[in-house]
Design goal:
Layout lengths: L1 H12 L3 E4 L4 E3 H15 L6 E5 L3 H14 L2 E5 L5 H11 L2 E5 L5 E5 L17 E5 L9 E5 H8 L12 E4 L6 H13 L2 E3 L6 H11 L3 E4 L1 H14 L8 E4 L6 H10 L4 E8 L3 E6 L6 E2 L11 E6 L2 E6 L5 E2 L10 E10 L2 E7 L4 E3 L2 E3 L2 H8 L4 E11 L3 E10 L5 H11 L11 E4 L5 E2 L2 E2 L5
Parallel strand pairs: 1-10, 3-4, 3-5, 4-7, 9-10, 9-11, 11-12, 12-13, 24-25
Antiparallel strand pairs: 1-2, 5-6, 7-8, 8-18, 13-14, 15-20, 16-17, 17-19, 19-20, 21-22, 23-24, 26-27
Length: about 450
């Protein structure tokens, strides 16, 4: 289905730029030639599950299309992982791991138990891919998706401003579900996708300016870092038409800052996960989701409900299972996102594995991060639990201060801001750090 869409696009406007990198620009037609050449090399893997380390975005996208074309189930591993980690993925998920030679050849790195269960490789609509979860809160899991579901999910919630002639920036890695959705969306609408040399804000900003990017989709962490970069350098923001936010909970203050910095942009935040696909896009300038989404009837692509403070979803455009297991169509899936209903909105307060137990009191970190993040002089913040012999845990915060900020004054302002919190929720340790660990442009929340 993915390569059928590509061929349709070639017939419609094959000379339009599809992918732009630092070193090359490929039209839809030129990219199809590239895909066809690699497909010939991958044909022997038809019906198998094949892993590939996504060090180079263009090579990874080519591999994804070529694997789909020959009926192999592709799985892109995160860039810059060690060979030992890649081998572990291949063995755990039964992949044949390959690498691509500069001359177009294919080398097998590891042979695993690679038969793709349940794949009808003679039916284009049933072709599939495996997508690893981000691993920001634990060990990555392999989810399996039909390409038709990926494309259907990508068409949801991107907004009416996205069409042919738009230029998107790829900030997500292509091994991430969000990156794959953006790729499918650009293909579906006949747009252009710009791939920066790296997804850090400085490189991304250069690419936005150089290519005249009109649409950008990225995590709240990326947008906070970009706003800080613009502020530090007193740089003029590019004129964007669409800002899309996803992958992490977004605060109202961030939405307000983006609206002020990018006045010409339509701003949306999407609730999506690797397991369920895109559930909803919100563009009303408020954090959280409208409570009405809980009233969706059977037949909607994604239904949501709250059970014991956790958001659950039932999806027709999400995964059909994890590696080794399938999901029944009517199954409700635990998202791991903890939420609260307030003022007609569903507010995200944390993840199931990140709640801090302070003397028996469960403390979600996100509301504390929002309070600290609103203090003048704070660039980034991460709140987490630190072991304590009396209460079991105490609340701690790592804070990246804006350059030139008086740290003593900032500590005082943070303490004052946190006085509105219940006693157990107040950070007992506030550490000023130069940077925070980021995994695929999301704050690394794995337990220390």
């Amino acid at each position: 289905m993915l390569t059928d869409l590509l061929r349709q696009r070639v017939r419609a406007d094959g000379d339009t730029a599809f992918l732009c990198t630092e070193s090359t620009t490929l039209s839809y037609r030129a990219f199809l030639v590239r895909v066809s050449a690699l497909a010939e090399q991958l044909r022997r893997f038809s019906g198998m599950s094949v892993g590939y380390v996504a060090d180079d975005a263009l090579d990874s996208i080519t591999f994804l299309f070529a694997a789909c074309d020959v009926g192999a189930e592709a799985c892109l591993y995160p860039a810059q992982i060690s060979s030992e980690e890649a081998l572990d993925f291949a063995e755990r998920f039964g992949h044949v791991q390959i690498s691509l030679e500069s001359d177009g050849g294919v080398v097998i790195v590891c042979e695993g138990d690679s038969a793709v269960g349940g794949m009808k490789d003679d039916v284009e609509n049933e072709r599939s891919l495996a997508v690893l979860t981000s691993g920001t809160t634990g060990t990555p899991k392999a989810t399996r998706h039909r390409f038709r579901s990926l494309i259907a999910s990508a068409s949801q919630g991107r907004g009416p401003t996205s069409s042919a002639g738009t230029t998107w920036l790829l900030v997500y890695n292509v091994n991430q579900y969000a990156g794959l959705q953006l790729l499918a969306h650009v293909l579906n609408t006949g747009g252009t996708l710009v791939i920066p040399p790296e997804n850090r804000p400085a490189a991304a900003l250069d690419s936005m300016i150089h290519y005249g990017v009109t649409h950008v989709s990225a995590t709240p962490t990326f947008w906070r870092m970009l706003l800080a970069l613009l502020s530090r350098g007193q740089l003029r923001p590019p004129e964007l038409r669409q800002i899309t936010i996803g992958g992490e909970a977004v605060s109202e203050s961030l939405l307000q800052q983006l609206a002020s910095c990018f006045p010409t942009a339509r701003i949306s935040h999407i609730y999506a996960t690797t397991e369920i696909g895109s559930a909803i896009a919100v563009s009303d300038g408020r954090a959280g989701l409208p409570e009405e989404v809980l009233d969706r009837k059977v037949g909607n692509c994604v239904q949501l409900r709250i059970s014991e403070g956790e958001l659950h979803a039932r999806s027709r455009v999400g995964m059909f299972g994890y590696h080794g297991s399938e999901v029944v169509a009517d199954d409700w899936i635990s998202t791991g996102d903890l939420v609260e209903l307030r003022d007609g909105r569903i507010h995200f307060v944390g993840r199931v594995g990140n709640v801090i137990n302070v003397g028996g009191i469960k403390v979600p970190p996100l509301p504390i991060e929002e309070i600290i993040g609103n203090v003048a002089g704070v660039e980034l913040v991460r709140v987490f639990g630190r072991s304590n012999p009396i209460t079991g845990n105490i609340v701690a915060a790592d804070v990246v201060a804006q350059p030139g900020c008086d740290l003593l004054d900032l500590r005082r302002d943070i303490a004052l801001a946190c006085e509105v919190l219940p006693e157990a929720h107040r950070p007992r340790i506030v550490k000023m750090v130069d940077s925070l660990s980021v995994v695929q442009m999301k704050l690394d929340r794995r337990k220390e």
